[in-house]
What we know:
Helix content: 40-55%
Low-confidence stretches: none
CATH topology: Rossmann fold
Radius of gyration: 17 Å
Largest sheet: 7 strands, mixed
Number of domains: 1
Order of helices and strands: HHHHEHEHEEHEHHEHHHE
Amino acid sequence: MNEVNKTLYIPLYGKSKVSQQGIILNDPSAEKIWKEEAFPIRGKSRSKWLAYNMAMRTRVFDDWTDSMLQRCRDALVLHIGCGLDSRHMRVKTPCTEWVDCDLPDVIEIRKKYFQENETYHMTVLDASRPEQIGTLPDCNTAIVILEGLSMYLTNSQVRGVLQALDKKYREIHILMDVYTEFGVKASKYKNPVNDVGVTKLYGIDAIGNIIDGLRIRFVKEHSFTPAALVKELTPIERMFFKLLFTGKLYRKIYRMYELKA
């Protein structure tokens, strides 16, 4: 497994930790996988503050996916760069088909823990090769989850993914998180992914430049740390968490965009 693939253990650890605490996210699959995989993460990657942040990000993606499925009952859900995430089990609104996509090493591990069925499938897909999106299932409407992916792709590759989705599906709903250019520069000094050997990341300052000329349009920006989730922390934890992961400085580093076509 390469360095980028290893980054999946950082959010997995965070989801497992908060699930054990009974806050933010109920994810017994993360608890089980973390225990069995026992990947040795260290340093900032084991920070409880980062665990809370990763879990809140995941919960925002979960809630958004659930709300989109309630609006688009016949939609295909595509989770590109799914890692070892169990979102297909956490989201309760039924869907006609859900496809989790990632690189071969990741899908191989996933198949130890998750079983395919009539509505749930796993497939190998390299997001740096957007032409592979053409092999995904056909559908009129696609709900696309791009969580923790864009920062490992160049701006051109991100555009390639969006362009391929734009071409394949008539209606698309996308949620994606991105580092800014400032965030990439700051990450050289304190990003947890450095602990697993990742040294090259990419940022997006203007999402409009990425989608220029496509049918895809910007809808709105989402918060990684909704007040309702922050309230699940203890009062003292809330105070420190807000200093680290909320406010204008955090937004200068990290953003979450909803797009549609």
